[in-house]
Amino acid sequence: MNYRKNDNHIILSLQTEDYINKSIKKVFIDQNLNPGWVSGLGAVYGIELGYYDLGKKDYMKKDLKGSTK
Fold first, then answer.
1. How many CA atoms lie less than 13 Å away from 31 in the CB half-sphere?
2. Using alpha carbons only, what angle is made at residue 63 by residues 62 and 66, rounded to the nearest 5 degrees?
3. 3, 27 in Cβ contact below 8 A?
4. Are 59 and 50 in contact (CB under 8 A)?
5. What is the greatest pairwise CA distance in the chain?
6. Cβ neighbours of residue 1 under 8 Å, at least 6 residues apart?
7. I need a surface site. Which of 9, 24, 36, 39 has the fewest CB within 10 A?
8. Does position 68 have pLDDT exceeding 70, yes or no?
């Protein structure tokens, strides 16, 4: 993982073995950040998507299998 700060933005670059959530959390801790906006662009594999279903009033998870390798 590498990142650099640019005005009010942080550019984060991950390697294949890096975990997205852990890397973003580390940047927030290192930079002493509070809530912020996160967006990304790139290829991923081994994803688990989580969301809150308002109708069911429950958290749902979906594994998205596959690889970009």
1. 20
2. 145
3. yes
4. yes
5. 42
6. 12, 13, 14, 15, 18, 23, 26
7. 39
8. no
Average pLDDT for 10-22: 91
48 within a domain of the structure (yes/no): no
Half-sphere exposure of 32 (CA within 13 A, CB side): 0
DSSP state of 13: E
pLDDT band at 61 (very low <50, low <70, confident <90, very high): very high
Residues 6+ apart with CB under 8 A from 26: 1
* pTM of this structure: 0.67
Residue 27: φ, ψ to 5°: -65, -45
Residue type, 48: E
How many independent structural domains does the chain possess?
A: 1
Q: How far apart are CA 56 and CA 11, in angstroms?
A: 37
- Domain extent, residue 28, equals 1-34
